Amino acid sequence: MKVTVVGFWGGYPKMNEASTGYLIEQDGFHLLLDCGSGVLSQLQRYIQPDELDALVITHYHADHIADVGVLQHALLIQEALKGETIILPAYGHQEDESGFSSLQYKELMRAIAYQPEQPLKLGPFTLSFLRTRHSVPCYAVRIESSNAVVVFTADSAYQTSFIEFAKNADLLIAESNFYSGMDAQSAGHMTSEEAASIARDARIKHLLLTHLPHFGNLNQLKKEAEQIYDGKVQLASSGLTITYS
Ligand SMILES: [Zn+2]
Ligand SMILES: [Zn+2]
């Protein structure tokens, strides 16, 4: 499995970068997890949009879905130029009807509801879902393949259920939208310290801090996490890849 950080900023992208998007690949299967602002542009550093095999959306906040519309346009234009039929299945929850229906576009992008209590098989991956604590319905995702387990918290305040959900994962991609000691909970987000405590308690091998804030010194987030958790801690950055074989 190969994980590429396409975008990692919380709320909106900094110049020439993107908000949330991760490319998850194995055996020639390309899964895009969230499609925030700037993701379509950044994605083209790695693959062409029409090479995607599936899109999975955690929730319908703009920093996670802003580029779905332009991805649809890219598929439309590439289909016309190549003369080949393109169909991209887009998986989202159905608890926000207008958000979910925005994933449907002509025959090119097909909105499919994931059932949060049921595993979802996509190519070499099996996904499972956990409801998060956020201002709108949102789901964390656990992705398992033959050689790795990767868990993404999506957007959430701290909740103890993350520990069981993320248990023994190779990689935890945890949102850390606030610094240690701040009130992240009322914003529906986590601090570096809370993200690190999940990594520690779930016996995670590698913690990637993401959904990063637009204030403070980001290296401080890493230092704060390292005080709680002994494993490897990294800050998400554009184009960072983590490969399992
Ligand atoms: Zn967000
Ligand atoms: Zn959100």
Structure notes:
The chain has 245 residues and is α/β, with parallel strands linked by helices. It has a single domain (2-237), classed as Metallo-beta-lactamase, Chain A (4-Layer Sandwich). Helix content is 22%, strand content 27%. It has helices spanning 39-43, 62-65, 68-82, 97-101, 161-166, 192-201, 218-226, and strands at residues 2-7, 21-26, 29-33, 54-56, 88-92, 109-113, 120-122, 125-131, 139-144, 149-152, 171-175, 206-210, 232-235, 241-243. The strands form two sheets. Strands 6-5-4-3-2-1-14 form a seven-stranded mixed β-sheet. Helix 6 runs parallel beside helix 7 (218-226). The longest helix is centred in the N-terminal third of the chain and has 15 residues, at 68-82. The protein is globular, with a radius of gyration of 17 Å. The mean pLDDT is 98. Bound molecules: zinc ion (2 copies). Residues 59, 61, 134, 155 line the site of one zinc ion. InterPro entries: Metallo-B-lactamas, RibonucZ/Hydroxyglut_hydro.
